[in-house]
Write a structure and sequence with these properties.
The complex is a heterodimer. Chain A contains 17 helices and 18 strands. In chain A, helix 13 (about 375-390) packs antiparallel against helix 14 (about 415-435) and helix 15 (about 450-455) crosses helix 17. Mean pLDDT of chain A is about 90; it is low at about 1-20 and about 495-510. Chain A is about 35% helix and about 20% strand. In chain A, strand 17 (about 390-400) and strand 18 form a beta hairpin. Chain A is α+β, with helices and mostly antiparallel strands. Chain B is of the alpha+beta class. Helix content of chain B is about 30%, strand content about 25%. Chain B is built from twelve helices and 17 strands. In chain B, strand 3 (about 55) and strand 4 (about 60-65) form a beta hairpin. Chain B starts with 5 loop residues before the first helix and ends in a 15-residue tail after the last helix. The chains are: A alpha+beta, B alpha+beta. Chains A and B meet through strand 9, helix 7, helix 8, helix 10 and helix 15 of A and strand 7, helix 6, strand 9, helix 7 and helix 8 of B.
Chain lengths: ~500, ~375
């Protein structure tokens, strides 16, 4: 995917050293920072040449790019502490980075900052079948934990779509979910302890090897804090016994209203499915063309509804869910016969993003959450917006928990399309807040949804977020400018709104 | 929920007056947990008039209610729709409120399998020292917009502000349940619980006391039935089972009852929160074990420092729950790095230091 938009200026409360962007200033600053870092890192762990740092200029949200001043790739916690101490003394912004798969620009580099790659922290330190926990370094991939635990009949439950590549440290930063979090919870519910370093480079632990820790529950704030409160180096995760069996129902619906109602009916019947996903017709078509999963192309929406557990449990749940889906007006119901067919049902859903990438130069993935009962209403609104902004949109929803992933298709090389896409996205988020939801369910705010945070939170609430940030990171050096928009930024965003989407200076890049 | 409502306006005015005068407030719900933690001090801020369930839709699995709502009322309303608070919050006595439940952050027997209270908090409305009502989180399960302040408030003992309204995730009650009892000593019980926890069993709660292990299974009828057949043991009647688990949940079991004379003689009730795999602790005094070994209650005359050192040695911590003298501190102090964050958070949320000062730590 290509993208053309210029790097956003670092926003907000960064304790900004003089933000002069002249190439001479940047070069001088770079030389100074490299020299300082050389005191704690071997030369090979410091990247500062353009060709070495350019691979780090974006994360999974490729439309936003910035060249980092320096990239460091430490190997030990002591080295990370050393880097943090230097940056803290000199007030140099630090942007922690895992696999760079994030979808909200949370790892977008700071042009005068150090990108801290934690890629070398990739060891699984311990897997304990008795306590059902694993202790892993932050750079271990999500799926690698489950692979390592598999011989013991255990796995790590949260399964974001990027689980092949994304790291547990990144999952902690984003409080990642996945298709099975309806039943098994988010990252927060599956993490016992986070060990890391404060902005000043001091070792700190949140949570414990027990089920709670004394004092305020700081673990709950650190999980999902997008790398702004501390640098995670090691995580103790809870492992779950692998259910002996899983089966999936694929149900077709002739209209989105009955599909939405079916979702509410399944939950109301007292069942928490292992997964409950919805794809609309445009998405089904794209996914079917990509993986040939056997989706019903005549349906307005299809639901994937999974049960897992023992054979008897699964049989009982599948029967009850089938009844509810039929009563809710499903036009076709198919239950996976075996594991191969179950995986086939899921293959299209799991490949929704790459499939969309195949039919459009770029797509922007939204991530809001709404109350389940508003699903159909939301889909109708998105259809109208697609007409209004003259862009295509395909929809995959984690319907069970109301988390939406509309994928807006556009060409980032066309600035006009990019602009319309951003407005389309912002309107989806605003509509989500209006319907009683939130602007981000699992991808995080990053830089992408800063403006939308102005819609969701009052000035007093945002001030408190800044205060939380300040309590952990008094100098605002950890990932500055992300997540919490400044008062000024929200004031400007409010002004833009007066014009009902007609932005002043439409050629100016905005983020 | 708006600050213009008379009840909320009165609370807000009292808070602002207290802030202006820098006078501490003791945020009061039903007064059922006054014994827990450090002693409350300050002028009473009565929350019980802030009552009522604001919204409840079973198909959304979310209930929103005001802080003064009685926990008993909330649980009755949920039960009518076949739903529950899966973390089984302790009630200790009648009259407890939702706000007190969240502020104390305590969970009951099912915690090890269902998760803690904080896992079910979706959103909180908080009154700050300026009398403003701030909203964090919301009514949806997946929500990563901003820092998760609502879950930070769970277990904060009111030191960060006044919890006025809470949204909680609720779940369907399990369709079937059974309680099994086995005779076995502590070490064998712990080993057995660990072995079971790694298997696909519908474990809901466990407890060991006086050479007997109690196991509650809950879930789909088929799963409970087959687990009962596999595990054996003596099956309790539903009435006996309910009474047993409630007696642990609410501390009505004789183990938790320390008479005035026992307290005066220096006996204390401790809660040890440990890694479940921690071996039997060699501390004097009877123990009652829950949460698959992760929560161990201890009655002892032993010095506080000895108990805390033993808990810390295995990676846990110890809370002095009932004692005639809590000079040793009710809660274990975290590391200095964590304590520093505590002090800064307290200052950020409560610059005048008026909200439940000293309730969590004497100097906070």
């Amino acid at each position: 995917m290509n993208a053309v938009i210029a790097a956003p200026p670092p926003a907000d409360a960064a304790p900004a050293p003089v933000l002069d962007y002249s190439p001479e200033f940047v070069a001088a600053r770079r030389a100074e920072v490299v020299a300082a870092l050389a005191a704690v890192l071997p030369k090979s762990a410091i990247l500062s040449r353009h060709e070495d740092t350019v691979p780090y200029e974006c994360d999974g949200l490729t439309a936003y790019r910035a060249l980092p001043l320096v990239v460091v790739i430490p190997e030990t916690e002591a080295q990370v502490a050393g880097v943090l101490k230097i940056c803290s003394e000199r007030k140099i912004p630090i942007v922690p980075r895992g696999a760079g798969t994030g979808l909200s620009g949370g790892a977008l580099p700071h042009p005068l900052g150090v990108s801290l790659s934690l890629a070398k922290f990739n060891k699984i330190l311990e897997i304990d079948a008795l306590s059902c926990t694993a202790i892993v370094e932050c750079g271990v991939r999500n799926l690698a934990i489950s692979d390592a635990a598999a011989p013991l009949g255990l796995y790590y439950a949260p399964d974001p779509s990027s689980q092949i590549a994304c790291t547990i440290g990144g999952n902690v930063a984003e409080n990642s979910g996945g298709v099975h979090c309806l039943k098994y919870g988010l990252t927060l519910h599956n993490v016992r302890r986070v060990r890391g370093l404060t902005a000043e480079g001091e070792r700190i632990e949140f949570g414990s090897a027990a089920l709670d820790a004394p004092g305020l529950d700081l673990l709950a704030v650190v999980v999902g804090s997008e790398g702004m409160l501390a640098v995670t180096t090691e995580v103790t995760v809870k492992l779950t016994p692998k259910p002996p069996l899983a089966r999936c129902i694929m149900a077709s619906f002739a209209d989105v209203e009955s599909a939405g109602a079916a979702v509410a009916n399944v939950i109301a019947s007292g069942i928490i499915p292992a997964g409950l996903e919805l794809m609309d017709k445009p998405m089904t078509e794209v996914a079917e063309a990509f993986v040939h999963a056997g989706y019903d192309l005549s349906a307005a929406a299809i639901l994937l509804c999974e049960s897992d557990g023992t054979e008897a449990e699964v049989a009982e749940e599948i029967e009850r869910m089938t009844q509810v889906l039929e009563a809710s007006g499903a036009s076709r119901i198919e239950v996976s016969r075996d594991e191969a067919q179950r995986l086939k049902f899921w293959s299209g859903r799991k490949n929704a993003f790459p499939a969309s990438g195949g039919i459009s130069p770029d797509y922007m993935c939204m991530d809001s959450t709404i109350p389940r009962k508003r699903l159909a209403e939301m889909l109708r609104s998105i259809e109208e917006m697609a007409v209004k902004y003259d862009l295509r949109c395909v929809n995959v929803f984690h319907a069970g928990d109301g988390n939406l992933h509309p994928l807006i298709l556009f060409d980032a090389n066309d600035r006009e399309q990019m602009r319309r896409c951003e407005l389309f996205g912002a309107e989806i988020l605003e509509q989500s807040v209006r319907l009683g939801g939130t602007v981000t369910g699992e991808h995080g705010v990053g830089v992408e949804k800063l403006n939308s945070m102005c819609v969701q939170f009052s000035p007093g609430e945002r001030a408190l977020f800044f205060a939380v940030k300040q309590a952990f990171d008094p100098d605002h050096i950890l990932n500055p400018g992300k997540v919490i928009p400044s008062l000024q930024r929200c004031a400007e965003y409010g002004k833009m709104h007066v014009h009902h989407g007609l932005l002043p200076f439409p050629d100016l890049p905005r983020f | 929920m708006r600050t213009a409502e008379p009840v909320l306006r009165r609370l807000s005015e009292q808070v602002r007056a207290a802030a202006a005068a820098a006078l501490p407030l003791d945020i009061q719900g039903g007064g059922t947990k006054t014994f827990y933690g450090e002693a409350p001090r300050g002028e009473a801020l009565a929350m019980t008039s802030l009552q009522g369930i604001s919204s409840y839709e079973p198909s959304e699995l979310v209930v929103t209610a005001r802080a003064g709502t009685r926990l008993a009322e909330l649980e009755t309303v949920l039960a009518q729709r076949g739903q529950c608070l899966p973390f089984e919050p302790p009630r200790f006595a009648t009259g407890g409120t939702l706000g007190g439940m969240v502020a104390s952050g305590l969970s009951g027997p099912a915690r090890a399998s269902t998760g803690a209270l904080r896992d079910y908090v979706l959103g909180v409305s908080l009154l700050n020292a300026r009398g403003e009502l701030l909203h964090f989180g919301g009514q949806v399960e997946k929500n990563v917009a901003g820092y998760d302040v609502s879950r930070l408030l769970a277990g904060s003992w009111g030191i960060l502000g006044v919890i006025c309204e809470v949204s909680l995730k609720v779940l369907p009650c399990p369709p079937a349940a059974a309680t099994l009892r086995f005779d076995c000593d502590q070490a064998r019980a712990l080993a057995q619980l660990q072995a079971w926890s790694a298997q696909s069993l519908p474990l809901r709660a466990s407890a060991w006391y006086r050479e007997q292990l109690y196991l509650r299974l809950a879930g789909a009828a088929a799963a409970v039935h087959s687990a009962c057949e596999r595990l054996g043991g003596e099956r309790l009647t539903p009435e006996t089972a309910a009474a047993w688990w409630d007696s642990l949940r609410d501390h009505r079991h004789e183990f938790f009852q320390l008479s005035a004379s026992e307290l005066a003689a220096g006996e204390c009730l401790w809660r040890l929160s440990l890694p479940p795999t921690a071996a039997t602790l060699g501390l004097p005094g009877p123990q009652l074990i829950e949460w698959g070994g992760a929560q161990r209650w201890l009655r002892t005359h032993t010095d506080a420092a000895v108990v805390r050192t033993a808990a810390a040695a295995v990676g846990g911590h110890a809370t002095l729950v009932r004692a005639a003298d809590k000079a040793a501190g009710a809660f274990t102090r975290p590391s200095e790095a964590v304590m520093r964050v505590h002090r800064r958070l307290k200052l950020a949320f409560d610059p005048a230091g008026i909200f439940n000062p000293g309730r969590l730590y004497a100097d906070l």
